[in-house]
Amino acid sequence: MGQTLWFASRATGLVALVLLTMSLVLGIVGSNRVASVRWPRFALSGLHRNISLMTVLFLAVHASSAIIDPYAGIRWVDAVVPFVSSYHPFWLGLGAVALDLMLALIGTSLLRTRLSHRLWRTVHWAGYLVWPLAVVHGLVIGGKDSKLSWVISLNVTCALVVLVAVVWRLRSASHPDSEARRAATVGGR
Fold first, then answer.
1. Shortest CA distance to 29 belongs to which of 54, 47, 50, 17?
2. Structural domain boundaries of the chain?
3. Are the C-beta atoms of residues 154 and 14 closer than 8 Å to each other?
4. How far is CA 59 from the centre of its chain?
5. What is the 3-state composition of the chain as percent helix, strand, coil, each rounded to the nearest 5?
6. What distance in Å separates the CA atoms of residue 133 and residue 112, rounded to the nearest whole number?
7. How far apart are CA 121 and CA 10, in angstroms?
8. End-to-end CA distance of the chain
9. What is the DSSP letter of 174?
10. How far apart are CA 13 and CA 163, in angstroms?
11. How far is Cα 99 from Cα 13, in angstroms, rounded to an integer?
12. C-alpha triplet 111, 28, 108: angle, nearest 5°
């Protein structure tokens, strides 16, 4: 197989980063209940969900190809249990934490109608850690590949897109439904 698995792991990791960035940005935009005639809220929500699922698929290929590749000696347990790998335990552990959080996000989203809104929202807030953990994991464990100009440009672009979305979200007014729910929660205690 030569370096095929190595390249597959790197490529799917980078694609997963782009998809994760898109999912995060759509989640941030959706949290403000942005909608238009062309993009109703259900379409934005559906796109966010589908991109999140695609991210998980690329992460599965990313982790699988890294595990199957005998070079690093990564075990299946290393992909999901943080900091137990003999290969760059801390940096691979950050990737495992990101994967675990991503799986928790997907699981709680699939069970959203059966969970309290507070639990779902708490897990989703924890999900904001997935993106920076994934970025740091990729930058450090990626070795020489991480220092390629196009990889650096990709990471910087993703960071700028997320930064713009966060700044936009913090500066934009809250939706009346959110304000009413917040008032009811505070008033109901």
1. 47
2. 4-187
3. yes
4. 10
5. 80, 0, 20
6. 24
7. 32
8. 61
9. P
10. 21
11. 12
12. 10
Q: How far is CA 185 from CA 53, 117, 170, 188, in A?
A: 31, 12, 21, 5
Residue 114, token pair as written in the block: 């059966």
* Residue 99 token pair: 């994967």
Q: pLDDT tens for residues 123-159?
A: 988 888 999 999 999 999 988 888 999 999 999 999 9
**Residue 182 reports pLDDT greater than 70:** no
Question: What SS3 class is residue 38?
Answer: coil
Tokens 């070795």 belong to 143
Q: Which class for 113: exposed (0-12), middle (13-18), buried (19 or more C-beta within 10 A)?
A: exposed
Residue that is written with structure tokens 């998980």 in the block: 56
Closest to 143 measured CA to CA, from 4, 7, 1, 2? 7
- SS3 state of residue 115: coil
Q: What angle do CA 58, 62, 68 make, to 5 degrees?
A: 140
Share of the chain above pLDDT 70, in %: 90
CA–CA separation, 16 vs 141, rounded Å? 15
Q: What is the Cα–Cα distance from 99 to 111, expressed in whole angstroms?
A: 18
